[in-house]
Design goal:
Strand order of the largest sheet: 6-5-4-1-7-8
Bound molecules: glycine, manganese (II) ion
CATH topology of the largest domain: Creatine Amidinohydrolase
CATH architecture of the largest domain: Alpha-Beta Complex
Strand content: 15-25%
CATH superfamily of the largest domain: Creatinase/methionine aminopeptidase superfamily
Helix content: 25-40%
CATH class of the largest domain: Alpha Beta
Number of strands: 21
Structural class: alpha+beta
Length: about 450
């Protein structure tokens, strides 16, 4: 059974318990300009349940709570079309879909709105996520109206339309072994890319050259691409948290912050490293780097099953605050700095988010209003940082414009955690050695 069939089986079990059918469409193609599209990327929920990457596809899941073995999955997809395939590429087609994907039945996407009312007959509740695609929402509403209009003729329209998120995203939060394998693969490719960037970056190169090197390294290893737009931020650009212009020259003596991760089979990695463009940290850069590193290592160590998620952030925050006081960037005791939140001038984001098919992956962070305990199979990032605004005239000039973030991807295990991106140089000595490595060829 494929990874995706296994996900489908698990979700069908939930649907059976909840006595509800589900409709899961994939993403729509997005126009880039005129008649060009962005490269297609399937919807993460749809991919999770099918492993099928063609646009114009909808999965329908129909549990039978009286006969577990009769639950079935129906895929609507594009028909084969010789002429269209010559222009736009091969299609799996309706006939091949059941065998290739393990679905019980397949129909042409053209038949979706005529077949759906028949398939959904007898289901009082339907899960469908609305709000992603107006055309789909309109057609769905129109189908519902049609069913309601026929109520007098004995048709029983569904009475509850539910968002699948609480159930489906709960499944996605707990990774299966196959998913963890995909994330390891994404992490390994990302490691190669960051190491290549450390070796290749030097004064006079452009941020976009390093951006291209990262992308090249992802793609040459068979990655499905970037998990998000790479951030390649030299010098003070590192203080812009979502800097993606990547068009400045790398300068002697500056740091380079790279936040970039590859996808494998659409599973993300999300890694940040910060390193000296000229090969060696200056004293102020090293002082800030060491504080962030200590905070990051302390926070990674806090990742344990049963520990509330927010404890990871608190571990990082406390270590950062202690460091800011030691460096003279914040004043007072740890408690005073936390109370007045003066650390926010230098650390203004969270420490972690879930990671999976989406870089900021789905899944609830709280349970009954409380920070939810970590459990084996969850994957989260640990990414503290310090950023000194280049225009901050309250601090000594030597600190201004220094931005450092260190980010790893951490799997919660039965006994503690496993850092999936531990292979990427991180200590001062490791990073300087990787920057000084003579990596001339990228081919
Ligand atoms: N790369 C996005 C993030 O770190 O959250
Ligand atoms: Mn990141
Ligand atoms: Mn992140």
């Amino acid at each position: 059974m494929s990874l995706y069939q296994e996900h489908r089986r698990r979700f069908l079990q939930v649907l059976s318990e909840e006595r509800v059918a589900a409709i899961i469409p994939t993403a729509t193609e997005k126009t880039r300009n005129h008649d060009c599209h962005y490269k297609f990327r399937p919807d993460s929920d749809f991919w999770y349940l099918t492993g099928f990457a063609e646009p114009e596809s909808v999965l329908v899941l129909l549990p039978d709570w009286n006969h577990e073995d009769k639950a079935h999955s129906v895929l609507f997809l594009r028909e084969r079309n010789k002429e269209m395939e010559i222009w736009d590429g091969k299609r799996l087609g309706v006939e091949a879909a059941p065998q290739a994907l393990g679905v019980d039945a397949a129909f042409s996407i053209e038949q979706l709105w005529t077949e759906l009312p028949k398939l959904l007959k007898g289901y009082e509740q339907i899960m469908v996520r609305t709000g992603n695609d107006e055309a789909f929402d309109r057609q769905f509403q129109s189908m519902l109206s049609g069913l309601r209009a026929r109520a007098r003729k004995g048709v029983e329209p569904p009475v509850a339309i539910l968002d699948p998120a609480p159930w489906l995203h709960e499944l996605r939060l707990h990774k299966t072994l196959g998913e963890i394998e995909n994330m390891r693969k994404a992490a390994a490719i990302t490691a190669e890319a960051h190491v290549a960037a450390m070796a290749q970056a030097r004064p006079g190169k452009m941020e976009y050259e390093i951006d291209a090197l990262l992308d090249f390294t992802f793609r040459k290893n068979g990655s499905t691409g970037q998990a998000y737009n790479s951030i390649v931020a030299g010098g003070a650009n590192a203080c812009i948290l979502h800097y993606v212009e990547n068009n400045a020259e790398l300068r002697e003596g500056d740091l380079l912050l790279i936040d970039a991760g590859a996808e494998w089979d659409y599973y993300a990695s999300d890694v940040t490293r910060t390193f000296p463009i000229s090969g060696s940290f200056t004293e102020p850069q090293k002082a800030i780097y060491e504080v962030v590193l200590r905070a990051q290592e302390t926070a990674v160590a806090a990742v344990q099953p049963g520990v509330p998620t927010k404890a990871v952030h608190e571990a990082a925050l406390h270590a950062l605050v202690d460091g800011l006081i030691e460096l003279g960037l914040c004043h007072g005791t740890r408690e005073e700095v936390l109370e007045k939140e003066t650390y926010r001038d230098f650390f203004m984001h969270g420490t972690s988010h879930w990671l999976g098919l989406d870089v900021h992956d789905q899944g609830a962070y709280t349970e009954d209003g409380e920070s939810r305990p970590l459990a084996p199979g969850m994957v989260l990032t640990v990414e503290p940082g310090l950023y000194v605004d280049p225009e901050n005239d309250q601090v000594d000039a030597k600190w201004r414009g220094i931005g450092v973030r260190i980010e790893d991807d951490v799997l919660v295990t039965e006994s503690g955690h496993e850092n999936l991106t531990a292979a990427i140089p991180k200590t001062v000595a490791e990073v300087e050695a990787a920057c000084q490595a003579n990596w001339e060829s990228v081919a």
